[in-house]
Amino acid sequence: MNIRVLYRSTLGAIMMAAFVAILGVSVPAHAQSTGDAAQGIEISPALVELNGEPGKTYTLKIKVTNVTLTKLTYTTSINDFTSQGETGSPRVLIDDTLPATASVTSWIAALPGFTLDTRESRNLTATVTIPADAEPGGHYGVIRFSGRPPALEDSGVGLSASAGMLLLIRVAGDISETASLESFYSANNGNQTSLFESSPIGFVTRIKNDGNIHVKPVGTIEITDMFGNLVGSVPVNDTKSNALPDSIRRFDGEFKADGWMIGAYTANLTIGYGTTGQAITNTITFWVIPYKLLAVVILGLITLVFIASRLIKVYNRRIIAKAKNENTTKNKKNDKKKG
Protein backbone atom coordinates (compact mmCIF):
# COMPACT_ATOMS: atom_id res chain seq x y z
CA MET A 1 0.00 0.00 0.00
CA ASN A 2 1.55 3.26 -1.17
CA ILE A 3 0.55 6.12 1.10
CA ARG A 4 2.41 9.22 2.16
CA VAL A 5 1.01 11.40 4.94
CA LEU A 6 2.67 14.75 5.53
CA TYR A 7 2.17 16.79 8.71
CA ARG A 8 3.02 20.37 7.87
CA SER A 9 2.54 23.72 9.53
CA THR A 10 1.71 25.86 6.53
CA LEU A 11 -0.40 24.55 3.70
CA GLY A 12 -2.32 22.52 6.25
CA ALA A 13 -2.70 25.67 8.31
CA ILE A 14 -5.48 27.16 6.21
CA MET A 15 -8.02 29.37 7.98
CA MET A 16 -11.62 29.97 6.94
CA ALA A 17 -14.56 31.52 8.79
CA ALA A 18 -16.94 29.64 11.11
CA PHE A 19 -20.32 29.13 9.52
CA VAL A 20 -23.98 29.25 10.42
CA ALA A 21 -26.04 26.15 9.63
CA ILE A 22 -24.51 24.46 6.56
CA LEU A 23 -22.66 27.46 5.14
CA GLY A 24 -18.91 27.80 5.55
CA VAL A 25 -16.02 25.71 6.80
CA SER A 26 -13.05 26.15 9.08
CA VAL A 27 -9.63 24.53 8.69
CA PRO A 28 -7.57 26.17 11.45
CA ALA A 29 -3.87 26.73 11.61
CA HIS A 30 -1.70 23.93 12.97
CA ALA A 31 -0.51 20.74 11.33
CA GLN A 32 -0.33 18.25 14.17
CA SER A 33 -3.08 19.93 16.11
CA THR A 34 -5.59 22.24 14.49
CA GLY A 35 -8.52 23.98 16.05
CA ASP A 36 -10.04 26.95 17.78
CA ALA A 37 -11.86 27.02 21.09
CA ALA A 38 -14.61 29.19 19.61
CA GLN A 39 -15.08 26.66 16.83
CA GLY A 40 -15.08 23.73 19.20
CA ILE A 41 -12.86 21.25 17.43
CA GLU A 42 -9.21 20.31 17.03
CA ILE A 43 -8.12 18.01 14.19
CA SER A 44 -4.84 16.22 13.64
CA PRO A 45 -3.47 16.12 11.02
CA ALA A 46 -4.89 19.14 9.19
CA LEU A 47 -3.45 18.04 5.84
CA VAL A 48 -2.85 14.65 4.26
CA GLU A 49 -1.08 14.10 0.94
CA LEU A 50 -1.76 10.66 -0.48
CA ASN A 51 -0.02 9.06 -3.45
CA GLY A 52 -2.45 6.44 -4.71
CA GLU A 53 -3.22 4.15 -7.60
CA PRO A 54 -6.57 3.55 -9.31
CA GLY A 55 -8.51 0.62 -7.90
CA LYS A 56 -6.76 0.58 -4.50
CA THR A 57 -7.96 1.38 -0.98
CA TYR A 58 -6.10 3.37 1.68
CA THR A 59 -6.78 4.17 5.33
CA LEU A 60 -6.18 7.46 7.14
CA LYS A 61 -5.91 8.05 10.88
CA ILE A 62 -7.62 11.16 12.27
CA LYS A 63 -7.68 12.50 15.82
CA VAL A 64 -10.57 14.78 16.79
CA THR A 65 -10.65 16.73 20.09
CA ASN A 66 -13.42 18.82 21.61
CA VAL A 67 -11.66 21.97 22.84
CA THR A 68 -14.75 23.68 24.27
CA LEU A 69 -16.13 23.62 27.81
CA THR A 70 -19.33 21.85 26.75
CA LYS A 71 -20.24 18.47 25.33
CA LEU A 72 -20.62 18.52 21.54
CA THR A 73 -22.09 16.10 19.04
CA TYR A 74 -20.27 15.88 15.71
CA THR A 75 -21.38 14.91 12.25
CA THR A 76 -19.09 14.41 9.26
CA SER A 77 -19.35 15.30 5.61
CA ILE A 78 -17.13 14.95 2.55
CA ASN A 79 -16.62 17.80 0.08
CA ASP A 80 -14.37 18.66 -2.81
CA PHE A 81 -12.37 21.86 -2.71
CA THR A 82 -10.59 24.07 -5.21
CA SER A 83 -8.35 27.11 -4.96
CA GLN A 84 -9.96 30.39 -3.96
CA GLY A 85 -8.20 33.42 -5.41
CA GLU A 86 -4.41 33.58 -5.43
CA THR A 87 -3.75 33.32 -1.70
CA GLY A 88 -3.99 29.54 -1.51
CA SER A 89 -7.15 29.46 0.60
CA PRO A 90 -9.38 26.54 -0.32
CA ARG A 91 -12.93 27.02 -1.58
CA VAL A 92 -15.04 24.17 -0.29
CA LEU A 93 -17.59 23.02 -2.84
CA ILE A 94 -20.75 22.53 -0.80
CA ASP A 95 -23.35 23.13 -3.49
CA ASP A 96 -21.13 22.80 -6.57
CA THR A 97 -20.25 19.37 -7.89
CA LEU A 98 -17.37 18.05 -9.95
CA PRO A 99 -17.52 15.30 -12.60
CA ALA A 100 -17.73 11.83 -11.04
CA THR A 101 -14.25 10.92 -12.31
CA ALA A 102 -12.75 14.03 -10.61
CA SER A 103 -14.76 14.30 -7.37
CA VAL A 104 -13.53 12.57 -4.20
CA THR A 105 -16.88 12.72 -2.40
CA SER A 106 -17.66 9.12 -3.35
CA TRP A 107 -14.10 7.91 -2.69
CA ILE A 108 -14.22 8.41 1.10
CA ALA A 109 -16.50 6.24 3.20
CA ALA A 110 -18.88 8.15 5.47
CA LEU A 111 -17.89 8.38 9.12
CA PRO A 112 -20.53 7.87 11.86
CA GLY A 113 -21.50 10.73 14.16
CA PHE A 114 -20.16 10.86 17.71
CA THR A 115 -20.29 12.90 20.91
CA LEU A 116 -17.30 14.22 22.87
CA ASP A 117 -17.13 15.68 26.36
CA THR A 118 -14.99 18.74 26.95
CA ARG A 119 -11.31 18.07 26.13
CA GLU A 120 -12.17 14.52 25.09
CA SER A 121 -10.51 13.08 21.97
CA ARG A 122 -11.38 10.29 19.57
CA ASN A 123 -9.26 8.48 17.02
CA LEU A 124 -11.03 7.76 13.75
CA THR A 125 -10.16 5.80 10.64
CA ALA A 126 -11.19 7.06 7.21
CA THR A 127 -11.19 4.75 4.21
CA VAL A 128 -10.30 6.10 0.76
CA THR A 129 -11.02 3.93 -2.28
CA ILE A 130 -9.73 5.30 -5.58
CA PRO A 131 -11.95 4.16 -8.47
CA ALA A 132 -10.36 2.18 -11.28
CA ASP A 133 -11.43 4.85 -13.77
CA ALA A 134 -10.20 7.84 -11.70
CA GLU A 135 -8.52 10.55 -13.74
CA PRO A 136 -4.73 10.69 -13.23
CA GLY A 137 -3.49 13.79 -11.42
CA GLY A 138 -4.63 15.75 -8.41
CA HIS A 139 -7.93 15.35 -6.58
CA TYR A 140 -8.77 17.51 -3.60
CA GLY A 141 -11.24 16.97 -0.80
CA VAL A 142 -11.96 17.85 2.81
CA ILE A 143 -13.36 15.67 5.59
CA ARG A 144 -15.42 18.10 7.64
CA PHE A 145 -16.54 17.71 11.24
CA SER A 146 -19.44 19.88 12.43
CA GLY A 147 -20.27 20.08 16.13
CA ARG A 148 -23.12 21.47 18.18
CA PRO A 149 -24.48 20.94 21.73
CA PRO A 150 -26.62 17.78 21.97
CA ALA A 151 -29.58 19.85 23.16
CA LEU A 152 -29.61 21.67 19.82
CA GLU A 153 -28.87 18.64 17.69
CA ASP A 154 -32.48 18.11 16.59
CA SER A 155 -33.66 21.70 16.91
CA GLY A 156 -32.22 23.02 13.66
CA VAL A 157 -31.08 26.20 15.40
CA GLY A 158 -27.86 27.44 16.91
CA LEU A 159 -24.34 27.88 15.68
CA SER A 160 -22.58 24.87 14.20
CA ALA A 161 -18.80 24.92 14.19
CA SER A 162 -17.04 23.16 11.34
CA ALA A 163 -13.41 22.22 10.79
CA GLY A 164 -11.84 19.84 8.36
CA MET A 165 -8.84 17.81 7.28
CA LEU A 166 -7.65 18.63 3.78
CA LEU A 167 -6.88 15.67 1.56
CA LEU A 168 -4.62 16.03 -1.49
CA ILE A 169 -4.69 12.84 -3.57
CA ARG A 170 -2.21 12.18 -6.37
CA VAL A 171 -3.60 9.48 -8.64
CA ALA A 172 -0.91 7.68 -10.61
CA GLY A 173 -1.00 7.73 -14.40
CA ASP A 174 -0.45 10.45 -16.98
CA ILE A 175 0.77 13.17 -14.62
CA SER A 176 1.53 16.62 -16.03
CA GLU A 177 3.68 18.82 -13.81
CA THR A 178 3.70 22.08 -15.72
CA ALA A 179 3.90 25.58 -14.31
CA SER A 180 4.64 28.98 -15.80
CA LEU A 181 5.44 32.47 -14.58
CA GLU A 182 2.33 34.58 -14.79
CA SER A 183 4.13 37.71 -13.55
CA PHE A 184 7.08 38.85 -11.46
CA TYR A 185 7.49 42.44 -10.37
CA SER A 186 8.70 44.75 -7.63
CA ALA A 187 6.03 46.40 -5.55
CA ASN A 188 5.42 49.04 -2.92
CA ASN A 189 2.54 48.22 -0.55
CA GLY A 190 1.36 45.62 -3.06
CA ASN A 191 1.30 48.06 -5.99
CA GLN A 192 3.59 47.38 -8.93
CA THR A 193 6.40 49.90 -9.34
CA SER A 194 10.04 49.99 -10.38
CA LEU A 195 10.91 53.20 -8.50
CA PHE A 196 11.48 53.31 -4.76
CA GLU A 197 12.60 55.97 -2.35
CA SER A 198 14.19 53.45 0.02
CA SER A 199 13.90 49.89 1.23
CA PRO A 200 12.00 47.74 1.99
CA ILE A 201 11.47 46.50 -1.55
CA GLY A 202 8.45 44.29 -2.11
CA PHE A 203 8.33 41.49 -4.68
CA VAL A 204 5.33 39.69 -6.12
CA THR A 205 5.71 36.32 -7.84
CA ARG A 206 2.64 34.75 -9.47
CA ILE A 207 2.91 31.15 -10.61
CA LYS A 208 0.31 29.51 -12.86
CA ASN A 209 -0.20 25.76 -12.58
CA ASP A 210 -0.89 24.51 -16.11
CA GLY A 211 -0.70 20.82 -15.19
CA ASN A 212 -3.07 18.33 -13.59
CA ILE A 213 -1.33 17.97 -10.23
CA HIS A 214 -0.45 20.35 -7.38
CA VAL A 215 3.12 21.62 -7.31
CA LYS A 216 5.31 23.39 -4.76
CA PRO A 217 7.18 26.24 -6.50
CA VAL A 218 10.09 27.14 -4.21
CA GLY A 219 13.03 29.44 -4.91
CA THR A 220 14.83 32.70 -4.24
CA ILE A 221 15.14 36.24 -5.52
CA GLU A 222 18.75 37.44 -5.59
CA ILE A 223 19.30 41.21 -5.64
CA THR A 224 22.44 42.76 -7.12
CA ASP A 225 23.51 46.40 -7.41
CA MET A 226 24.63 48.22 -10.56
CA PHE A 227 28.14 46.84 -10.13
CA GLY A 228 26.95 43.25 -9.97
CA ASN A 229 27.49 42.88 -6.23
CA LEU A 230 25.02 40.67 -4.37
CA VAL A 231 23.25 42.79 -1.76
CA GLY A 232 20.68 40.27 -0.51
CA SER A 233 18.11 37.61 -1.29
CA VAL A 234 14.43 36.93 -0.66
CA PRO A 235 12.91 33.43 -0.35
CA VAL A 236 9.93 32.52 -2.48
CA ASN A 237 7.43 30.16 -0.86
CA ASP A 238 9.71 29.09 1.96
CA THR A 239 6.63 27.51 3.57
CA LYS A 240 6.45 25.10 0.61
CA SER A 241 2.79 25.76 -0.07
CA ASN A 242 1.03 24.15 -3.02
CA ALA A 243 -0.33 25.64 -6.20
CA LEU A 244 -3.37 23.68 -7.36
CA PRO A 245 -4.08 22.84 -11.02
CA ASP A 246 -5.79 25.51 -13.14
CA SER A 247 -4.97 28.20 -10.62
CA ILE A 248 -2.52 31.06 -10.04
CA ARG A 249 -0.67 31.20 -6.73
CA ARG A 250 0.75 34.50 -5.53
CA PHE A 251 3.81 34.72 -3.31
CA ASP A 252 4.82 38.00 -1.67
CA GLY A 253 8.31 38.75 -0.40
CA GLU A 254 10.19 41.74 0.97
CA PHE A 255 13.80 42.82 1.04
CA LYS A 256 15.02 45.25 3.70
CA ALA A 257 18.54 46.56 3.27
CA ASP A 258 20.93 46.94 6.18
CA GLY A 259 22.09 50.32 4.90
CA TRP A 260 21.41 52.88 2.19
CA MET A 261 20.26 51.88 -1.28
CA ILE A 262 20.66 54.13 -4.30
CA GLY A 263 20.83 53.52 -8.02
CA ALA A 264 19.75 50.67 -10.28
CA TYR A 265 19.29 47.14 -8.94
CA THR A 266 18.57 43.78 -10.55
CA ALA A 267 16.33 41.06 -9.09
CA ASN A 268 17.00 37.54 -10.39
CA LEU A 269 14.20 35.03 -9.79
CA THR A 270 14.93 31.29 -9.72
CA ILE A 271 12.20 28.80 -8.88
CA GLY A 272 12.20 25.02 -8.90
CA TYR A 273 9.19 22.71 -8.84
CA GLY A 274 8.06 19.21 -9.74
CA THR A 275 9.60 15.78 -9.26
CA THR A 276 12.07 16.19 -12.13
CA GLY A 277 13.55 19.55 -11.11
CA GLN A 278 11.74 21.91 -13.49
CA ALA A 279 12.85 25.53 -13.24
CA ILE A 280 11.44 29.01 -13.82
CA THR A 281 13.72 32.05 -14.10
CA ASN A 282 13.19 35.74 -14.69
CA THR A 283 15.00 39.06 -14.20
CA ILE A 284 13.69 42.55 -13.51
CA THR A 285 15.33 45.92 -12.80
CA PHE A 286 14.24 48.53 -10.29
CA TRP A 287 15.59 51.86 -9.09
CA VAL A 288 16.09 53.22 -5.61
CA ILE A 289 16.28 57.01 -5.62
CA PRO A 290 15.88 58.79 -2.26
CA TYR A 291 14.36 61.78 -4.02
CA LYS A 292 13.19 63.52 -0.82
CA LEU A 293 16.68 63.35 0.64
CA LEU A 294 18.19 64.39 -2.69
CA ALA A 295 15.74 67.31 -2.87
CA VAL A 296 16.84 68.46 0.59
CA VAL A 297 20.51 68.08 -0.40
CA ILE A 298 19.99 69.93 -3.68
CA LEU A 299 18.04 72.69 -1.92
CA GLY A 300 20.81 72.91 0.66
CA LEU A 301 23.44 73.15 -2.08
CA ILE A 302 21.45 75.83 -3.89
CA THR A 303 21.13 77.74 -0.60
CA LEU A 304 24.89 77.43 0.05
CA VAL A 305 25.69 78.57 -3.49
CA PHE A 306 23.34 81.54 -3.10
CA ILE A 307 24.84 82.51 0.26
CA ALA A 308 28.37 82.04 -1.07
CA SER A 309 27.65 84.19 -4.12
CA ARG A 310 26.20 86.92 -1.91
CA LEU A 311 29.22 86.80 0.41
CA ILE A 312 31.57 86.96 -2.59
CA LYS A 313 29.70 89.98 -3.95
CA VAL A 314 29.87 91.73 -0.58
CA TYR A 315 33.56 90.85 -0.27
CA ASN A 316 34.26 92.11 -3.79
CA ARG A 317 32.46 95.38 -3.09
CA ARG A 318 34.53 95.88 0.06
CA ILE A 319 37.75 95.16 -1.83
CA ILE A 320 36.77 97.53 -4.61
CA ALA A 321 35.72 100.23 -2.14
CA LYS A 322 38.97 99.80 -0.23
CA ALA A 323 40.99 100.03 -3.44
CA LYS A 324 39.12 103.19 -4.45
CA ASN A 325 39.78 104.76 -1.05
CA GLU A 326 43.46 103.90 -1.27
CA ASN A 327 43.68 105.39 -4.77
CA THR A 328 41.88 108.53 -3.68
CA THR A 329 44.21 108.97 -0.72
CA LYS A 330 47.22 108.33 -2.91
CA ASN A 331 46.07 110.88 -5.52
CA LYS A 332 45.51 113.51 -2.86
CA LYS A 333 49.04 113.00 -1.57
CA ASN A 334 50.45 113.30 -5.08
CA ASP A 335 48.47 116.50 -5.67
CA LYS A 336 49.88 118.03 -2.47
CA LYS A 337 53.43 117.23 -3.52
CA LYS A 338 52.89 118.82 -6.92
CA GLY A 339 51.42 121.93 -5.33
The shape is elongated
- The sequence of SSEs as H and E is EEEEEEEEEEEEEEEEEEEH
Based on the coordinates given, report the CATH architecture of the largest domain: Sandwich
Q: What is the CATH superfamily label of the largest domain? A: Immunoglobulins
Give the helices and strands, then pairings.
Layout: E1 34-36, E2 41-44, E3 47-52, E4 57-65, E5 72-84, E6 89-93, E7 114-116, E8 121-129, E9 137-148, E10 161-171, E11 179-188, E12 191-192, E13 195-196, E14 201-209, E15 218-224, E16 230-236, E17 247-255, E18 263-273, E19 278-288, H1 291-338
Parallel strand pairs: 3-10, 13-19
Antiparallel strand pairs: 1-2, 2-4, 4-8, 5-6, 5-7, 5-9, 9-10, 11-12, 11-14, 14-17, 15-16, 15-18, 18-19
Describe this entry's structure for a reader.
The structure is a single chain. With 339 residues, the chain is mainly beta. The chain folds into 3 domains: 34-171, Immunoglobulin-like, CATH 2.60.40.10; 179-289, Immunoglobulin-like (Sandwich), CATH 2.60.40.10; 297-339. Helix content is 14%, strand content 42%. The protein has 1 helix and 19 strands. It has one helix spanning 291-338; strands at residues 34-36, 41-44, 47-52, 57-65, 72-84, 89-93, 114-116, 121-129, 137-148, 161-171, 179-188, 191-192, 195-196, 201-209, 218-224, 230-236, 247-255, 263-273, 278-288. The strands form 4 sheets. Strands 3, 5, 6, 7, 9 and 10 form a 6-stranded mixed sheet that branches. A 5-stranded mixed sheet has the order 13-19-18-15-16, with no helix packed on it. Strand 11 (179-188) and strand 12 form a beta hairpin. The protein is elongated and about 135 Å long. Mean pLDDT is 83; it is low at 1-38.
